[in-house]
Amino acid sequence: MKSFGIPEDIHSYVVERSNPAADAVAENLAQASRDRFGDRAGMNIGDDQGRFMEMFAAAMGATTIVEVGTFTGMSALWLARGLTPGGRMICFDLVDTYAETATEAWQAAGVADRIEMRFGPAAEGLALLPDEPHIDLAFVDADKTGYRSYLDLLLPRLRDNGVVLVDNVLWSGRVLDTADDSTDTVALREFNDHVARRGDCDAVILTIGDGLTMIRPRR
Fold this sequence. Notes:
The protein contains eight helices and seven strands, in the order H-H-H-E-H-E-H-E-H-E-H-E-H-E-E. It is of the alpha/beta class.
C-alpha cells in the first residue's frame, strides 16, 4: 500500500529512506493477510503510515491507546510499539475472525502482552470505558457510518493533549466525487464536513495513507 495521490517513485523513495528501512514482522503480517484474506488485506495501513503512528505515539509518551477496527492487527502492531513501558492498548473489533493472525504478529513483535482485544459493536464497548479522561491516543479505522459516534465517545475520554486519528478520510479521492452517493463515501464526506464545523476541537487532514485526520479537543 502507498499513500493516496503520491507517485510510486516518490513513495518508494520515502519508504526506502525510513530508518530502519525494513520491518520483517510488518512484511510477514502483510503477506499473511494477503494469503489468508485476499483483497481484504488492502484494509491494512501501509508502512509509511505505521511508522508515523508509532513515532507519534512514542513522542507523545502514550500510556493508553484505544483502537476501533483492528482487522489483522497491522495498525495495532505499530501503535503498540510506540507505547511507553507499562502502557496498554485496547482494540475493539466486531468479530474475532482475524484475531489469530493479529496475535501471531503481535507475539512475533513482542507486544502481545500490551494489547487487549474486545469483540462486539465498538460503540457499546467505548461507552463502557471509564468516563473520565484517560486515553492518550485513539485510532479509528472501522465502519465509516460509525465514525461520528466513535469520535463523540472518544473525545471526552481523552487526556489533555490527547489525539484521535481517523483513517480513510480521503477515500481514494471519492469524497470529492459528487456523483458517488455510496453509503461509505457519503458517510466520510459528511464526517469530514462535521469535523471541520466543530467548535470544540482542532483538526487537520494529513495526506498519508488514504487520508488521516488528527483531532484534538479544545479545553
